[in-house]
Amino acid sequence: MALFLILIVDHHWGSFALPRRLSCLIFQRMRLIPIHIQIIGNEIALKWNDEKESYLHFEKLRRACPCAGCGGEPDVMGHVIRPQVTYTPASFVLKSYQIIGGYALQPVWQDGHSSGLYSFDFLRRLTLGDVPA
Ligand SMILES: [Zn+2]
């Protein structure tokens, strides 16, 4: 309701400039999607729809694999026990990738692993270092 009222007032005054706090709020809610994905050496380069660019090393990407086999699944109490994952050099070689349903990236690794679905939101947080690798 507050948002609606402010927009009306701004429109009436002939200005579309939003108060600073409000534009931050809208920015945070904007859905971030990569508009360009490129493999450069052993990194994946992502250009986002907010013009930001980020780079993710294959090893960091693989170690953050969110699938149940790598990241674990919560038990009935909600505790997540991370399974012991064995990596080989081929685990950190990206063979190919697919975009799934317009919301996630699914890497196919040289060792055959491909069950990790990295949502764009998760990918973005990974590149910012918010998610422990
Ligand atoms: Zn995995």
Essential attributes:
alpha+beta, NE0471 N-terminal domain-like, binds zinc ion, 3-stranded antiparallel sheet, about 130 residues, 5 helices, disordered N terminus, 2 domains, globular
Task: List the ligand species.
Answer: zinc ion
Strand content: 15-25%
The residue-averaged pLDDT reads 82
Strand order of the largest sheet: 1-2-3
CATH topology of the largest domain: NE0471 N-terminal domain-like
Large-scale geometry = globular
- Structural class of the helices, strands and pairings? alpha+beta
Q: Give the termini distance in whole angstroms.
A: 40 Å
Number of beta-strand segments: 6
Number of domains: 2
- Uncertain runs with pLDDT below 50, 5 residues or more? 1-15
Percentage of residues in helical conformation = 25-40%
CATH class of the largest domain, anyone?
Answer: Alpha Beta
Produce the secondary structure layout.
Layout: H1 2-12, H2 20-29, E1 34-40, E2 43-48, E3 53-57, H3 58-63, H4 68-71, E4 94-100, E5 104-109, E6 118-119, H5 120-128
The structure holds zinc ion.
Zinc ion is lined by residues 65, 67, 69-70, 113, 115-116.
How would you describe this protein?
The structure is a single chain. The protein is an alpha+beta fold and 133 residues long. It has 2 domains: 1-30, no CATH class; 61-128, NE0471 N-terminal domain-like (2-Layer Sandwich), CATH 3.30.2020. The chain is built from 5 helices and 6 strands, in the order H-H-E-E-E-H-H-E-E-E-H. The chain has helices at 2-12, 20-29, 58-63, 68-71, 120-128; strands at residues 34-40, 43-48, 53-57, 94-100, 104-109, 118-119. Strands 1-2-3 form a 3-stranded antiparallel sheet. A 3-stranded antiparallel sheet has the order 4-5-6. A hairpin with an 8-residue loop joins strand 5 (104-109) and strand 6 (118-119). Mean pLDDT is 82; it is low at 1-15. The structure holds zinc ion.
